[in-house]
Design goal:
Layout: H1 16-28, H2 39-70, H3 74-90, H4 93-101, H5 110-143, H6 145-149, H7 154-171, E1 181-183, E2 190-192, H8 200-234, H9 240-277, H10 280-302, H11 304-315, H12 317-323, H13 331-341, H14 344-350
Antiparallel strand pairs: 1-2
Helix pairs in contact: 2-3, 2-4, 2-10, 2-11, 2-12, 3-5, 3-7, 3-11, 5-7, 5-8, 8-9, 9-10, 9-11, 11-12
């Protein structure tokens, strides 16, 4: 595989040392010795934890969510699609566990590497945009309850989810047709989606992912929760306990979203900008220095498949009621307790994301 030669910005000539280094990098297909990284054991543990907890939590919440979908609950439609996306990704985790346990050596073939990467990145941005859609839907339900009722429907929610999945997966089909396996320096090991230096097209696509796939949804979610919190604060018919719950849920979702996805996208943008603004030697030194933290942010982002089911329980009273029998309580007991805390209007407002 041949990589594009890096060039210094605002310069018409390339120093000899950089040209020689570029040729050397093209021959070795890497400028980072992944085998020397202390990451593998740590990452293996993170992915094992995410696999076990994510599988258990998603299966546990799947039946209650299906019940909400059958009752034409709009939130249930978004949560079901979010759960199915998480489960598809979780099923590929054993491949990543094997990869990191073998010291970043992918021995399962090019196609398997492409499919695993496709499901990983598709799940990340499907999850981000579904969380964004849920936030918009909750904002409309709270701030414009009468006007939004005319067009908020399960049918529209399904169409939005279908369009969203098609767009995200179509954009990420690129990973299925790329050669994502690369030799790790002078070793015989093959790395999957860890190519150094990154191709120019990948650097451009990374910046697009950061802007459209992370910053834009984060801005929309922030505006939605700002509107929701403002509406709840001005409402005199809500108890202070309910208002406090809405505030905690709103800040909690934004916080979880930022913790899972912000570190990865911050380093992704930094690496992509470094590609365009550093010479080859400085760029490779930079990539070596951030390889460990960047791998950690990848593992951290995979934990969204564990956190999402917890959000289902926090943001939906119906899902929480349906799942309580699994925890040793009857649904009727939970309903009796719920009635003592909130009215029907309060219940709608506390089902916020």
């Amino acid at each position: 595989m041949f990589w594009p030669i890096f060039e210094k910005p605002m310069s018409t000539t390339t120093p000899t040392i950089d040209r020689n280094l570029s040729e050397e990098l093209m021959g070795n297909s890497t400028c980072v010795d992944i085998s020397e990284s202390p990451v593998p054991g740590f990452l293996t543990g993170i992915y094992i934890l995410a696999f076990i907890l994510g599988l258990v939590f998603n299966i546990l919440t799947l039946c209650p969510i299906l019940q909400q979908v059958r009752s034409q609950n709009i939130l249930g439609v978004f949560l079901l699609n979010l759960s199915m996306s998480d489960l598809l990704y979780i099923l590929t985790m054993p491949l990543w566990i094997r990869y990191y346990n073998q010291g970043h050596d992918w021995d399962m073939g090019k196609f398997t590497c492409g499919v695993a990467g496709f499901l990983y990145y598709s799940n990340m941005y499907v999850s981000i945009y579904l969380l964004c859609c849920i936030s918009v839907d909750r904002c409309l339900a709270v701030t414009f309850p009468l006007r939004s009722k005319s067009f908020r429907s399960s049918r529209l929610a399904w169409l939005v989810c279908l369009a969203l999945c098609l767009v995200v997966m179509s954009l990420h089909c690129l990973v299925l047709f790329q050669d994502n396996l690369s030799k790790d320096g002078n070793n015989t090991a093959q790395s999957c989606y860890e190519t150094y230096p990154m191709p120019r097209t990948v650097a451009m696509f990374n910046l697009l992912r950061v802007g459209v796939g992370f910053l834009l949804p984060l801005l929309v979610m922030g505006l939605c929760y700002w509107k929701i919190l403002g509406h709840v604060k001005q409402s005199e018919g809500l108890r202070e306990q309910v208002k406090r719950k809405v505030r905690l849920l709103s800040f909690g979702v934004i916080g979880i979203f930022s913790v899972c996805f912000a570190p990865y996208h911050l380093l992704l943008a930094t690496r992509s900008l470094a590609y365009y603004h550093m010479d080859v030697r400085r760029y490779c030194d930079f990539e070596r220095s951030v390889h460990f933290p960047f791998s950690c942010t990848l593992a951290l982002s995979s934990l969204n498949s564990v956190v999402d089911p917890i959000l289902y329980v926090l943001v939906s009273d119906e899902v929480r009621e349906d799942i309580m029998p699994c925890c040793g309580r009857t649904r009727q007991d939970q309903r009796d307790n719920t009635k003592t805390l909130t009215t029907g209007t309060m219940k709608t407002l506390t089902s916020l994301i």
